[in-house]
Fold this protein.
Amino acid sequence: MIYDDLLSGKKKLAVIGLGYVGLPIALEFARKISVIGFDIKADRIEMMKKGIDPSNELSSAEFEGCDILYTSDLEELKNASFYIVAVPTPID
């Protein structure tokens, strides 16, 4: 079952869109399972790698203890088995 595979680390979850909705979701999941956090904006990714929330909603302490890979590389998404999409609507 995918739930058990996610908890055991055999599979990864991806959160696509790390804005004010996606980032908190990704971090919360990353406290328990392995997460790939994807955003198209490389500058935002670099900030998150340093524990900085570009939206200024979260403190740096909320990044601690999380199993998350921040990336803007689409290829990394192939390593996930489950996807959550948190992007603005409407999208082009």
Summary: The radius of gyration is 12 Å. The chain has a mean pLDDT of 95. The CA atoms of residues 13 and 82 lie 5 Å apart.
